[in-house]
Each structure stands twice: as structure tokens, then as C-alpha cells.
Amino acid sequence: MLRDLPGPRGLPILGMAPKFFSDPFGYAAEVARHGDLVRVPFPGAPLIYVTHPSLVEQVMVKQARDIVKGRFMSRVEIVVGQGSFIAEGDAWRRQRLRMAPAFRPALVAQMAPGMAALAQEAVGGWQDGEVRTFNDDMMALTLEIALRALFGATASEEDVATVREAFLDISDFFSRVGEVILQLPMWVPTPANRRFQRARAALDGVVSRILAQRRAAAVEHDDLLGRLMRGRDDEEQGMSEALLQDEVRTLLLAGHETTAVALTTTGYLLAHHPAVQAGVFEEVAALGGAPISTDTPLPRTQAALDEAMRLYPPVPAWGREPVRDISLGGHTIPAGTTLLVAPFIVHRREDLFSDPLRYDPGRWTPAFRKALPRFSFFPFGGGPRVCIGASMAMLEARIVLAEMLRRFALEPADDAPLTLFPSLTLRPTKPVRVRLRARVA
What we know:
- This protein is 50% helix and 10% strand.
- By secondary structure, the chain is an alpha+beta fold.
């Protein structure tokens, strides 16, 4: 019985919701104290947190056929539609087959020069001594990279501006505290709902226009959209226009916001750990300005990013729901139960990471990586539904971080702590500010 599971008691009716909203980090720590499978009272129905690597593996791999994304993730459907992020079963399998060729390693590597050019352009406008709102900078840059990766040169500057504004509104919609617990139907004419619907319509308008132009011209393009248009499943069926729309929205949302969060937290932590930053800069400087690709050895840079994603995984938790009763950790989990797989909690386990709250990229030695149990560190998920764009995201993050550190050292701009709220991603609730110091050539 679920009632036999350990967990915090919470308040009558409200459960642990007040703690979640007022102190999400404290909430996570409270959940973690209760073990590997934790029952958390929440308005509507209890949440069952899965916080041990072996149990995560059960959910994500070994029993994946009996577990779907479920109701907890259904709200995201208003953005991503029926694309691969939401689809289940055969529909998901066929869509994954259509998309996989677009993310082959050789094709991802071809994106590196474009990523570097956009990063250099952005950093080129920065000035010595200025204070930047770093989270806004990273969000703008990663969205620009995602747009150009998807649309190449087809999209006009007006199109890019329209999509940029639309996705800012869409991201803001999901970052509202009320959206996490009080999900009003989209037909309710609230200001937030109307703003979201306008943004969604503007985004779809741009994508429809570009698709129509490409089909009319019958010219193949080698950007992500072109590859998706050519994708076929095992029955040689391509995507409908509706599915293409869904996948474009998915790639834009997932492809820029998660990378922006990873870069924001890494930049903040490096600014507060100058010795670590110096080591990363030394590694980047040793390249002598050479371009970075997927096979460029940058162990310190990768460790700095991995340690930031360990402490602050861009997607802190995600929902799963068994379609039939399953056994998990010696307990029977009834069909329809909301399971939450929580990297944010697993990544901070003391039995996996010594001094787990400390930012210590030095822990990520080859031996340490090899010894970690599976699903001890999984910022991009795992199993059959592992993030299809993970290699693209990490290439982008390494390039952007390197281009920044080549020109500037990052310093704290103030004593403000890093405050984050778990929505679709782990987003800053206050501006993350850093001061720039130009490096002497």
C-alpha cells in the first residue's frame, strides 16, 4: 500500500505544497531524508518520489513498457502537441525513427561552426567591467542558436524576432508558480492564457510559412528542419505538417532552455570559484583559438558543466505513471500513481557524491565516472527515451563556455544567492548577475 511508504506528513489538505513553493531546495532535502521511495502528500493525490539509482533504472529502463509519462506531463502537450516528447508506444517509436538520423554524431558536429559564430557575436558586444544579467544573456543566445540550427538561413530576421518573443512568453507561462499546481483550462480567458495562445499562434505561423516556402521551392536544406522533413519511419512514412509543427516547438523549447540553465548555473559557479575557472580557462587557452568540435578533449570544461548539472539539473524532475500495477522497491505501485523521477535529489545523495552540496568539478575523474552506478547522474534522462538532442546540447554548452572564457573572466557582481524554482526547467527566480573582466591578450 502506498500509505506504508515513508515520507513527510505535510499540512492537512495542502500537504507539502506550501513547502514546495516557499523553499523548493528545502522541500527536496526533506523528501530525500525519507529514503529511496518516498510518499509526499500534495493537493489532489500523493506523489511518489523515486530517489535511488537502481529504482530509477527500474522506472526508466527495466519496466519502461509498463510506464508512461502520464497526467503529470500532460500539461506540456499544449506546447509540444503529439510529438516525440509526449507520444507513447508505437507512435513514439515511429517518430523517434524519423528523427534519429537528424541527430547523427557527424551531423551534430557540423553545427559547431555556426554555434561558435553566434557565441562570438554575442560575446563581442560585451565590455570590460560591465555587469551582465547572465541568465537573460544565456537564454537569448541559446534560443538564437536553436533557431539557426532549425531554420538555417531560411528564416528572416523578422521571423527570428517573432519566434524569440513567442518563446519568451511560452517559457514565462510555465515558470509561473500558479501553473505548477493550479492549471486552469486554456479556454479560461486569463491574461496568461491569452498571452500564451497569441505566442503559440505566432510561432506556428512562422513555421507554417517556412514549411510552405520549402515545399514550394522543392529545394533540400541541411538544417534540422530540412532533415526532419526528410525523416522516415520503418514504413517509409514521413511526418505530417502537424507533427513537424509539434517537433519544432519541442526542439525550440527543450533545445534552448535546458542549455541556457546549464550555462547560467555553470557561469555563476565559476564566478564564485575562481580557481576552478582558471583551470577551465587554461584548458581553453591551450587550444590557441582552434575551433571546438565534438571530439575536442576538454575534460575540465566538461567537468565544470557536469558538476553544475549535478547540483542544478536543468530538468529537476519528471513524471511517470504505470499503466498497470508494478512492483518497485518491494512495494506495489498501483496503476495511475504519479511517480516523480528526481535527478535533483539523486544527484545530491551522500552515498554517491562526497560532500554533495559542494561545487567540486575535480571529482569527475575518469575513474569516478566509471565507478558511478547507472542513473546516479542523468541530467538528460536515460533509457529508450533519453534526450535525443543531448550531444547537441553539450557541444553547444562547451562552445559557448569556451568562447566566453577566452575573452572574459567572470566575477560575482553581488552577494545574491542563486535562487531557482522547479518548473519545466530549474529557472532562476531573480536575475543572475556577473561582472566581466576582459582578459589581457
